[in-house]
Design brief:
This protein has 290 residues and is α/β, with parallel strands linked by helices. Helices cover 30% and strands 17% of the residues. The chain has a single domain, classed as Rossmann fold, CATH 3.40.50.1820. The protein has eight helices and eight strands.
């Protein structure tokens, strides 16, 4: 088999959101004319460098790939998170739109890869139907009641005791202390904790339900929603509770058994680690078919 042409080094791109916030994105360019353009909408607290292996793989197969660090994370974070003010939905309503607005309208088919929060953000974008297909993984409702019993106990302890203490102490959620990603601005902690207390996330929040329902109802883009059977944070039933919000979009749910792909485990983060190339091949094939 001929080895695919390798992409050039990632291109660093400076962006600015509509409210003036400076952001940093990375672009992974294919060697020739792109067969499609992929926007990666990352998970909460996960810097864009985590998606590099997938982005390089997709670029080597002819896709123009774009990743982003949301405000407060990675290359887009301020000197300190203490006193840094933002809302959790700013990532969906300000930051991802800034990336999308920077991309050319040149007829190249657009596709979305959404990881966890990225699957929430998709329905909140100004024009989600700009995408031909969305491949979303590890997205769920966040409610502990959907999780296995032991994980549910841990999560309730996290939100009820540990996170409030750490946030009060630092002024932000010191998420890195738990080995779960980068530290999170206070606004992310505040909103995330609230919505995870509802079985259907922000769709059940009386202050948010009408707003988000109206926006998700606009989505007509076909979605493939993949959740690993060993993902204790977002098992398939948690996905089903949240993805019901995309009620007007063609939805294909996939319950993923890691063993069927020769993988020891996937969990919540393994979709983008090296060794998960069989999953990437399926995602890229779905984009090509679209």
């Amino acid at each position: 088999m001929t080895r695919p042409s390798l992409p050039e080094a990632a291109e660093v791109r400076a962006l600015r959101a509509a409210d003036g916030t400076a952001l940093t994105a990375l672009a992974y360019r294919p060697a020739g004319t792109p067969k499609g353009r992929i926007v990666v909408a990352g998970a909460t607290g996960v810097p864009q460098r985590f998606y590099r292996a997938f982005a390089e793989h997709a670029a080597a197969r002819g896709f123009d790939v774009h990743t982003l660090d949301y405000r407060g994370i990675g290359l887009s974070k301020p000197k300190t998170l203490r006193g840094y003010r933002m809302d959790y939905l700013d990532w969906a309503e300000q930051d991802l739109p800034a990336l999308l607005d920077s991309l050319p309208d040149d007829g190249v088919p657009m596709h979305l890869v959404g990881h966890s929060y990225g699957g929430h953000a998709f329905g909140l974008l100004p024009d989600p139907n700009r995408f031909r297909h969305a491949w979303i993984c590890a997205t769920g409702a966040g409610w502990a009641g959907w999780m296995p019993p032991l994980e549910a106990v841990r999560v309730r302890l996290l939100w009820g005791v540990v996170a409030p203490v750490w946030t009060q102490l630092h002024g932000y959620l010191a998420w890195s202390r738990f080995g779960m990603g980068e530290d999170l601005p206070y606004g992310v902690y505040r909103d995330w904790k609230r919505w995870c207390s509802y079985p259907r996330y922000f769709f059940d929040d009386p202050e948010m339900a009408a707003r988000v329902t109206e926006r998700f109802d606009r989505v007509r883009t076909p979605i493939t929603a993949v959740n690993a059977l060993d993902d204790t944070w977002a098992p398939p039933r948690s996905r089903d509770a949240f993805m019901a919000g995309y009620r007007n979009a063609p939805l294909t749910p996939v319950d993923l058994d890691p063993r069927a792909h020769g993988l020891k485990g996937i969990g919540h983060m393994g979709y983008f680690r090296r060794g998960a190339e069989p999953l990437w091949a399926q995602a890229l094939a779905s984009f090509e078919a679209a």
